[in-house]
Every structure is written in C-alpha cells, then in structure tokens.
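seq/struct pair 1
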Amino acid sequence: MDKNKLETLLFYLVFMKAVGEVLKYSYQLKFEQLKTLYEIIKYFHVHQQGVYIDELITYQTISKRQLRHHLEHLYHLGWITKLRDDNDQRRILFLPSNSCQEKLNIMFMEVSEMVKGKNFDYSIETTAHYNQLGHVLTIFDALYKVRNIAKESNLSLDELFLLGKLLSSRQVISLKEIQAMSYRYLICMNVVINDLYQKGYLEKYRNSIDERILNVKFIESRAYETNQLFIRCYNKFQEEMKYSKIS
C-alpha cells in the first residue's frame, strides 16, 4: 500500500482518538451529542434563527427521548440556549449560545495540540467553526465504517493503528520507541502489543545486547493480508469522505 495513503489513514485514526478524549474528559460530551449540536449550529447559520425540536428530530437518527436528553445536556454545559416562541410560549427554539464558537475554537486547539497535526492546524485558521465541526463528524462516520472492516479481522482501531506503524517500518522496534507513538498516551501501547502478539501479528523478544530492552517485530507472513486490510480500510474511508461531500 502507498505509504502516504497509509500515513493519512493512521493520522485520522489518532486524530479521532484525540477528539474522543477531549470530548469525554474536557467537555463531558459524546459524538452523538456533538452531532445534535452541529445540526443546531447549521440550522442557525442557514435560517438565522433557532430550531424547534420537531424539526430537529428530522435530521437525527435517534429517538425524541434521546434528543431531549442531548438538548438538556448541551444546554446545561452552555453550548446552546433556549428561547420561547413569541407566538406560542409552549414552543421552544434551540440555538447556539453566545460562547459556542469560542468553546469550539478552544476544543479544536486542544485536539490539535494533542496530535500536532499540521494539516488540522491549517483548517482551524481557514475554516468556519461549524464547518470544522461538520468535517470532524464526517471523519467520525467514515472511521465507523473502517472500524467495521477491522472488526471482521478481530482488530480494534488502536490495534489497526499500531499494525499500520509496524507495517510501514517493517523493522525491529523497541518497546520504548513504540511508546513514543502513543501521542501522549492516547493509545495504551502495552495492551495493544500484547493483543497483537496473541493474535499472531508480531513477535516479542529481549535485545541480545541489553536484555532490559524489549524488541517488537511485525511477522512478515502476515504482511500480505495486513496490507490488503489497509487497502480496504483506506478505500472505504475515502469513499465515505467523498460521499459525505456529495451529500
């Protein structure tokens, strides 16, 4: 597989891992709630007004009960605000809060700092906040399809990431060097190494010169099937990204 394509896929794997960590620990949000926020922001930018829950539900793939939970959570955390309809006080409009864009900006900067992705830094400077959010959700949906392909081979996305790194280098790597790939411990490499070892993708052995060093090597007999797996994953990722742009 082309090395640039492989590195692109691996970057997005760790990028979305960073987004998930920032959402969970810094903002107490889930991707599904982020999708609801995006629809509210998008509606506001198009119509210059808030959206009713009955209309918002048409853009969602969740139940009305779940949507209400998302809205209350987003409101409680200050992402959105609620207004009563002047013509019918029983009806409520949902729209982005005054601090929403600033919160998004800070969130994306946190993610960028975690992954040190130059391409993403560029998109922060040149793209509107809500378009950034839409792009992130597009990547999330595309990687969901990639995860399904990985599952067919009994692999997680974390395992897929390390396999890609090992496939790209095809050299003996020390455990310390692998730990440096963890992007500030976004990925628990010890667990991933043990899982891939048990699944027969790599071998572990002590360094002959210094037994304190643990070496890890990709098993060459698994190279063809692993390469084919990454080709499938990359093609599916690109297919989903292009489909989202069209739709």
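seq/struct pair 2
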Amino acid sequence: MAPSSDTNADASDERKDSDLVLEKPDKIGDADFANYFCTYGYLYHQKDMLEDTQRMNAYYDAVRKNPRAFKDKVVLDVGTGSGILAIWAAQAGAKKVYAVEATYMATHARKLIAANGLENVITVMQSTVEEVELPEKVDVIISEWMGYFLLRESMFDSVIVARDKWMKEGGALFPSNARMFLAPIRTNTANQKYNDFEDSCGGWDNFVDDTRENYGVDMSALTDTFEKEQREFFLNTSAWVDINPSQLLGAPCVVKEYDLNVVTLEEMKSVDAPFSLTVLDAMGNSEVGAFAGWFDVHFKGSKQNPCETEVELTTAPDANGATHWGQQAFYLERGIKPSDGGAVWGRLEMKRKRENQRLYDLKLTWEQGEEQGKPNEEIGESSNVWHIE
C-alpha cells in the first residue's frame, strides 16, 4: 500500500530537520561548529542532560527556592538548548526571558515554549551570545555551561561576554560560584591501561614483521611514532569515570575556586595552583592508581542580590551514581604507595590546547613524603600530562 501524502510530508519534515541540524550558522567557525556546537543541535544529546536528575534538581531548586531573584525580573538564558531553564524562569514570574541558542535546537525550544504557553514571556534568539543584540539589560543570567572537570568546552567564555555586556550592575549569575577538586583514588584500571598500551605496541611489532615478510615493505621506521601515538591515547588521556566513594584514598582538596560574578576571561583560560593531599590506607595494601578530578557549583546570587536559599550542584563521587559529567581520572603509570609517605603535594597546571580552545591539557607535578615539605628522596619528583578530551 502506498504511503499517504501526510506520511510523505512527515518524512520530508524529518529529513529537513536532520539537514538543518547540520547547517552551520554564518557566525560560527567551521571547526568550532563541527567539534562543539553541532552535537547540541540533536534532541538525543539534550535528553542525556535532561535525564540527569542531580543537574535538573539543582537548577530547578535554584529557581523555585529563590522567587525574589526571578519575580518581575529580566532574565537571559545563555545556551538555552531545549529551553527548560528559560521555562522555569518564566514560571517563577520573570517579566521577560531572552533564551539564546546558537544551534538548530532553538527551533525545538520555541516549539516547547509555545506548548507550555510561555511564548509571550520568552523570546528565543538563534545566535551566538557574542553576536546577539538584546533590547535591554538583564537582572539575571542563568546558564548550564560546565564541562568535564568544570572547564572543558570553555563555554563560560560566552557567559562572561553576556555578563559584561548585558547584566545590570548588581545582577546575579546562576550559578554564581564554582570549585575544582582533586583526590587520590584506588583503581585497577591504571594497570589495565598500561597492559593495553604494551599489547598495542606488541601488535605493531607483529604487524611490522608480517608486512616485511608478506609484502616486502619495512614499516619499522614508523615504530617510534606509533608508540608515541599509543602512549598519548592509553597513558596521557584522562577518562570519564563513575567513582564509588569507597575508592577514595584520602579527602579531596580544593585546587581552584571562582566567583563567577567577577572572574575575568583571562583567569578562566588556565589554572596554575598548588595542591596537598593526605593518602589514607585503611586497607593496609592499597596504592593510588589515579588522581580524580571533579567540580561543584553554587547558586548564591550576588552581593547586592543574594539568594534566599543557596543551592549546590556537585559532581563528587556518589554511591548512587554519577551525574552526566562523572569525574575525570588521571591514571598513573607508576602508582603512589602510602608506605613511601602519606603526604602528596605539588602543582596542577591546566591550559587550553592551541589547536582547539575548548579542550585542555592538564599537568600534575608532585612529591611524596611523610610530611609536606620533606620529600622521599628515593622517589624524587614525578609529573605527567593528560589530555582532557
């Protein structure tokens, strides 16, 4: 039986949506669209974030438990996505909400907002926030901008642009504060990573032998390059993990804090901070297989307009499971043994990649001893660099 004309129209509309998701706005660079913006145009990606109950509950509580911050106020939602934060702001009594979204998701946000009867309060603007022109200043900027280990994706750059250009004096950012944490963890994955690296290099050696024997070409000139490539992948790239609190081998330390109402763009581009950890070995035979990093954000408002109820969103290890951000594991090629000293201290350096400003390289340099400042001379200083991708 031939499909009806209505069915054909529906299929055509679906194809059109698919094509439009991949249609790059003029103001966004080709690489930035392909590597970053494009993904956020798909509903499946939005659904992943909307199903994160810790994320959703924190933002929902931040809006609903602070009615004075939104009642009769003008609100800007940076990177509105599906439009849910804009909807909550309008439901909380905002006079006007400007929802800015660079991708084709703006079309879906308009549809969702209209379905909830809020199109007269919320205006969706498909644009980057850097290019958008608002008719007025705003009282509140709300945005879910955080990436892995807080800074990956560098989306807060856009929030800073919006804050400095469009927020009224004394206005508030939601969230308003952020912290980055580092902790030692117990894990067997570090050993597995190293074994996988060695297996891959062994596989290359077999490949070189087979290619020489069967095809008369000696590939060994590329061995060093292949090993370097595999080392980068297996040993120098961080990993998304869902850590159980039982894996922690010591209390986390705060390595960086931000007051988002005043932090500058330059201050967000890199991190260079000391850290100090105490490794606890309750089991008596554990060793640190990785450092783990995560973040939290707080909704406090501003000095001029503080929140009635402060709300926290944390991505710390949780026995009930991780947020969609999880934690980042920085696996160690050589584990840290508590028997060599329970104090570990050093520096964390984090910089944006030259070739992609939304990704970061993280370097940890550390010493170990019985107490901070008195290193175990037999171990010396250790360091490694990981790519947060």
